[in-house]
Amino acid sequence: MKRLVFFSVLVAFSGMASAVVYKWTDAQGKVQYGDSPPNGVHAEVVEILGTHSARSAPSDSSGAPGDKPAARDQTAQQDPTKKAVDEDVAQTKEKQCADAQDRYKHLIEGRRLFKTGPDGERVYLTSDEIDSERLNAKRDVDAICNSAT
Q1: Which residues lie below 8 Å from residue 36, measured CB to CB, with a gap of 6+?
Q2: For residues 102 and 90, what is the distance between their CA atoms, to the nearest angstrom?
Q3: Measured between alpha carbons, how far is 50 from 43 in angstroms, rounded to an integer?
Q4: Which of 107, 44, 93, 111 has the alpha carbon at shortest distance from 71?
Q5: C-alpha dihedral over 141, 145, 148, 149, to 10 degrees?
Q6: HSE of 104 in the Cβ direction (CA atoms, 13 Å)?
Q7: φ, ψ of residue 142 in degrees (nearest 5)
Q8: Per-residue confidence of the chain (149 residues) as pLDDT tens digits?
Q9: CB burial readout 91-102, b (16+ within 10 A) else e
Q10: DSSP labels for 89-134?
């Protein structure tokens, strides 16, 4: 029985420990704390029991007084959105890297290299132009494929 009571107390306190607490300054200059900041006030998330990031929470100024912003819903929506954006960026980077590598490979392996002129005709490159294009293509491969972001 004691274990059950002790367990239920721990569960109750763990729920409170994971709650978000905001800190803001009111119109009189006093520091206030609460589970949701009032509308139109800049509030910061207070670090509690092992949280390590100080985040600012923008308040929604369009709501009626007394309405609580859905901070947890916003962070839950931002996480999948951020994940989707990161995946799109990674796919785009992979495509750009593959395109740059293909261009470089074409410039290295090609025999008669040309560019399309303004009238649609082929303009063949000189040796110096080919070397310059190869150098630029290699720089592009290095910049796109080896960059951290």
Answers
A1: 22, 68, 69, 71
A2: 18
A3: 20
A4: 44
A5: 90
A6: 17
A7: -65, -40
A8: 777 777 777 766 665 555 678 788 888 888 888 877 788 777 887 766 554 444 444 544 444 444 455 555 555 566 788 888 888 888 888 898 889 888 888 888 887 888 888 999 998 988 898 889 889 999 988 888 887 65
A9: eeeeeebeebee
A10: HHHHHHHHHHHHHHHHHHHHH-SS-EEE-TTS-EEEPPHHHHHHHH
Token reading at 122: 């082929």
Placement of tokens 């803001």 in the chain: 24
C-beta of residue 39 within 8 angstroms of C-beta of residue 65: yes
Q: Which residues contact 103 (CB under 8 A, 6 or more apart)?
A: 137, 140
As given in the structure block, the two tokens for residue 38 are 């009032």
- Residue pair 44/24 in contact by the 8 Å Cβ criterion: yes
The reply to whether the predicted model has a pTM over 0.70 is: no
> In angstroms, rounded to a whole number, what is the distance separating the alpha carbons of residues 32 and 46?
11
